[in-house]
Specification:
This protein is α/β, with parallel strands linked by helices. It folds into four domains: 84 residues; 70 residues, Arc Repressor Mutant, subunit A, CATH 1.10.10; 65 residues, no CATH class; 209 residues, 3-Layer(aba) Sandwich (Rossmann fold). The protein is built from 19 helices and ten strands. Bound molecules: S-adenosylmethionine. The site of S-adenosylmethionine has 19 residues, from helix 12.
Length: 449
């Protein structure tokens, strides 16, 4: 700590972190044998499509955290604070997504004039040009000649077939509306102090339209929304690098896995492909199980034919999952629910567990920007000084996901201590934490009394 008493020493240390982490990222790309990505690339780099991005993401967490900290020290404060607020990139990306601009440009790899592009998507050409210039400034799309735009490696994400684009669309169209009423919910008599699911900013935003029911109940009878939501979950997994869990947990020592709240199999399908010895049970709401079976028939029919995958409908707020399996895995489930419901889900799982069963909660984990001397870190990674211990802006997606959970569901991401509290209430003890960067895998076993 004392090494950084001088402000200039902190700047130098941040510069060193930026340098070493960027070099680490370069070496991760080179290890693939395909060199480094280029700003002009029009295809994905092979590393963009792999499931184990842990080393790259660790480097980028340092890089993004250190460069944001450095620029926020050196830039005028008016500038940095307005950068936080003055940010319509989400709205521009929303236009590109809804108008399918990246799909049109896919047919014109050499680029398309903004006049022709605007005609193709039936929008005003001057407005389309302004949207594209704003995004191009951030590296998404490329101006190949004056007013001629083409796709690049970033804008490929905005194609309608891309799952992360589908996840982005959920934010630009829905979550942005909920975020727009957040202060109103904080001063409303009914909503302000409530942590109930039906008092989410989403419910407030749609109050006039008489919306009732939790997020998942609303999707029950809206198949189109449900299909998009589950594609968005595949995209969220890609964005978070969550499939890293396939490589960094000892699946070889496990025989059976229950994917509790499996969705259509964003986790369990690649798991079944990588570890053919596993017997896998997918459990989700009945309408989602139908959707999941269809998805598995297309993407992993061999696992169905072998009979090593099963589908069992559940309402995990009321029912006990299939009993006596080795692992009960919950990805992005516990963070959807306030403490009371989250504890109920874990209690129901606890009833199904055998003496050696494990519960794996795979979610974002919140940690403080200040570490108290002498207080353990519970196995979480700590950033090197003088970075904020939780990596600051390097953890951007984790903390934004926490806000998404609030705005859409009145729920939250938790600290490890908060996870321990709900685990203890369900008779579980935390045994291990795996740092997967944007998400953490938190292992629980039955608590010994
Ligand atoms: C955020 S998604 C996560 C899906 C999947 N685990 C993944 O990582 O992509 C939450 C899942 O919980 C399921 N779910 C919501 N309420 C449920 C309930 N009461 N019982 C069972 N599943 C439920 C939803 O259908 C959805 O698939």
């Amino acid at each position: 700590m004392t090494a950084f008493n001088e402000p200039e020493a902190k700047l130098e240390a941040l510069l060193d972190i930026i340098n070493s982490s960027a070099r680490q990222a370069i070496s991760e790309y080179k290890k693939t044998g395909h060199g480094v990505p280029s700003a002009d690339a029009t295809t994905f780099h092979p590393l963009d499509l792999t499931t184990d991005t842990l080393a790259l993401k660790k480097a980028i967490r340092l890089l993004e955290g250190a460069y944001h900290q450095l620029s926020s020290i050196l830039a005028p404060p008016q500038h940095t604070v307005m950068n936080l607020v003055f940010n319509y990139n989400w709205a521009c990306a929303g236009v590109a997504l809804r108008a399918r601009i990246a799909d049109v440009l896919d047919q014109h790899p050499e680029g398309l004039s903004v006049d022709k592009l605007a005609d193709a998507v039936n929008l005003d050409k001057i407005k389309v040009a302004r949207v594209l210039r704003a995004l191009t400034l951030m590296g998404c799309f490329k101006e190949v000649e004056r007013d001629v735009f083409a796709n690049n490696r970033l804008s490929l994400i905005l194609q309608s077939a891309n799952n992360t684009g589908c996840y982005a669309r959920l934010h630009t169209e829905d979550i942005s509306k909920f975020a727009g009423v957040v202060y109103e919910t904080m001063i409303d008599d009914e909503f302000s102090r409530s942590h109930e699911v039906d008092k989410a900013p989403r419910v407030f935003a749609f109050k006039k339209e008489g919306m009732k029911g939790n997020y998942f109940e609303v999707m029950k009878d809206d198949e189109e929304r449900r299909v998009d939501f589950h594609r968005a979950m595949l995209g969220q997994s890609d964005m978070m690098g969550a499939s890293t869990v396939l490589h960094h947990y000892h699946w070889d020592d496990v025989s059976s896995v229950v994917d509790v709240g499996s969705g259509i199999g964003a986790f369990s399908t690649p798991l079944a492909k990588m570890f053919p010895h596993l017997r896998i049970t997918n459990q989700d709401l009945p309408e989602v199980m139908v959707q999941a079976q269809n998805a598995w028939e297309k993407s992993a029919p061999e696992a169905l034919l072998d009979g090593r995958v099963e589908f069992m409908p559940i309402n995990f707020l009321e029912d006990v999952p299939v009993v006596g399996k080795d692992v009960y895995y919950l990805r992005h489930i516990i963070h959807n629910w306030p403490d009371a419901e989250a504890t109920t889900i874990l209690r129901n799982i606890r009833k199904a567990m055998g003496p050696n069963s494990r519960v794996l909660i795979h979610d974002c984990v919140i940690s403080h920007t200040l570490q108290t001397p002498g207080v353990g870190t519970n196995g979480l990674s700590i950033a090197p000084e003088p970075m904020l211990p939780n990596f600051g802006a390097g953890s951007h997606r984790t903390y934004q996901t926490d806000l998404t959970m609030w705005f859409a569901l009145n729920s939250k991401e938790r600290t490890l201590d908060e996870m321990k509290v709900i685990g203890t209430a369900a008779g579980l003890a935390l045994t291990q934490v795996y740092d997967l960067v944007d998400t953490m895998l938190v292992e629980f076993r039955i608590a010994q009394s």
